[in-house]
Amino acid sequence: MAAASMCWSTTSLSLNDVVVIRAMSKGIGDRKFRDGAGLSMRKMIAVSIAVGSFILLADRSQAANRDGGTQLAAMCASCHRLDGGDGGIPTILGMGPEMLTRAMLAYRSRERPSHIMRAIALSLSDEEIATVARYLATLNK
Amino acid sequence: MKSRTRREFGRLTGGLALAALGPQLAASETKARVVVVGGGIGGATAAKYLAASARTIEVTLVEPKPNYTTCFFSNLYLAGLCSLESLTHGYETLAQRYGINVIHDSVTAVDPVAKTLELKSGPKLPYDRVVVAPGIAFNYDALAGYDEAATQAIPNAWNAGPQTQLLRRQLESMEDGGVFLLVAPPDPFRCPPAPYERASLVAYYFKQYKPHSRILILDAKDSFNAQDLFLDAWERHYRGMIEWLPAQFTGGVKAIDVKERSVRTASDTFKAAVVNVIPPQMAGQFAQQIGLVDQSGWCPVDPTTFESKLQPGTHVVGDATNAGDMPKSAFVANSQAKACAFAIAATLTGSERVPPHLFNTCYTFLSPDDAVSNAVSFKPAAGTIKIVDNFVSQVQESAETRHRTAREAHSWYAAFTRDTFG
Amino acid sequence: MFTPAPRVQVPSAAANGEVFPVKTLISHQMETGLRHDDQGNAIPRKILNKFICRHNDVVVFSVDLHEAIAANPFIEFYLRATESGRLEFVWEEDGGGIYVLEHHLTVA
To answer: Which of residues 171-230 of B touch C (CB under 8 A)?
Structure first.
C-alpha cells in the first residue's frame, strides 16, 4: 500500500500512464457490467442516476478525482443534494463548469449575497473552484 | 511495483463505476476492514464515505439503536412544529445502497494490538482501522441532586428521543402562567446556540397557547452564542417572556431538587412548573471506556486525519473530539467524518491524500419564520484546528431575509440527512 | 404580560462594618441609536443612562451608562454596612422611564 501511495505522489507517472489507466478501468467496468447484469449502457446510466448521490462516488471524471474533485464535492453535498433533488437550497447540477466557477467567484467577492457560500468560496483556491466545478459538471451529463 | 499500482487502480475505478450495482460484482481480493462504532451523524457519514470512496474497503457500522433521531431540529418538535418521526432516520440505505454491514449491537471491548472489537452478543470483529463516533456523555457530578434517574422527572432532552418527548409532554400539560426553567450548560457542549433556540421556540409555543407563561434561563456562562441575535429576537417576538440570568449574577447552578422541581443557585432557589436541565458534557462513554479521552474530558485527535492522539489506528469524529476551534455540531461531525474517511481511504488504498476542507454551518430558528445561520471555515494549523473565516447573520436583517433563511434551513435538513444516511 | 423585573442580590442582614457585594441585573435592549431598520431609518436611541443606589435616601453608589454598554447590563459593587435602613436601586432610561427596586438591610 505504501508503495502504491509513493507511485501516485511522485512525478514519474506520465500523462500517458494516466490515460492508459483510465481506458483500462473503463474497459473493466463495461465488461463486468455487461457480463454480470446484462444491461445496456443506457440502462447503466439510468441506474447511476437512480442511485442518487452515489453518482458522486462513481467517479466518472478521473481527472477531477485525481486532483480532489470527489473530496471537494463532498463538501457541497452537506447542503446541496447531488441526486437532482431540489428545494430552498438551489441545485448545483445542470450547470457547466464556467457557470459554476463564475458563481463561486461572485459569492467570494460578495457580488452575490450569501455568507455561507462566501465562506465556502473563500476557503477554496481558484484551482480548487475550477476542480470542483469541473467535477460537478460531470455529474449530470 | 508500478504495474501492481496500475492494476489496483484499475480495479478501484472499475469497481467504483459499478459500486451501486450490488455486492455480486465485488472483487474477490482481500479487502481492508474498517469498523465504525456509533451511528450518529459522524459515524453514519464516515461509514458512507468510506464505503463510497474505495471499493476495496469493507465497512461495518456498529450501532445498538435501529434508527437515529436528530438533535438538530428537535426544538421544532418541542414547539409542536414537527413530529419526532420526521426527524428519525434508519440505516437501511447505508446497508442496501452502499453495502455497509450494519450491525445493531454494542462494542464491549477493543484490542488495539490484535485489532479486534468485541461485540456484546459475543463475536469479535477484526479491523484494520476503527472510527469511533460516541457522541456526548453527561457529567452528572457537577449538579447535586441530578443524575440519570432524575432525568425521568426532569429531562435533559439533549439526546433526541424519549427525553425530548418527555419534555414536550410536560410543556403541553403545563398550565398557562407557569415558568419553564432551562439550565444551560458550561462550554463546551453539543450545539452552542441550541439552548437559546429552545427557549425561543418554547416561547413561540407559549405565545400561542399559554401566553401568560414565561421562561427563565439559568446559565453556567456569562454570555452565549449569537447573543445579540437572540436578545434582539426575544425583544421583537417574545417581549417580556424570556429572562436570562448569567452565572456572574446567580453564582451558578449548584443543585437540583427533583421533588420540589426547583433549582438552587449560589444566591437563590427558583421553582418552576417545568424544568429542563442540560448538564455539563464530556466525550461519550465508549470513548472513555477504551482510553481515547484526555483530562479535558474529550478526545484529542490529529487535525487532518482525526486519528486519536492517544491510540494509533483508532479515529474519532464528531462531538467527542477536542478539535480546536470546531464547535460540537452535526455539520462539524459530518465535515470531520468526510475528512477522516478520505484520509483512511487514502492510507488503505494507497491513493493520494488531499488536505481536508473543514466547515461548519448552523441554522437557528428564532421563530418558525425567523431563522439565522452562520458559516465558519477551519484549517489544521500547528497541531490543532483554527477558524479561518466566520460569517453570521446580522441583527438588522429584513424579515424577508430571515424568512428565506428559515425555508433554506428546511431544505438544508433534507439534503444534510440524505448526505449522512444515504 | 410578564415583564422581567430588575434583579438585585444583596444580603438582608450584615454586621456593622462588614463589606458586602451587591449584584444587579436588568433585562434591557440598550438600543444604541446607531442601528438602522430594514428601510434604512435610524432606530432611536433608548438606553438606561444611569444607575443609582441610595441608602436611606443618600446616594452611596452611582454610574453613568453609555451606548457601548451591552444589553442586559450587569453591575456589581461593594457597600460597607453602617446602619439599618432602606436600600433603593434605580435605573433611569432615555425618555424619563425609571425602574426601581427596594430592599431592607438590617445591620447588627
So the answer is: 211-212, 214, 227-228
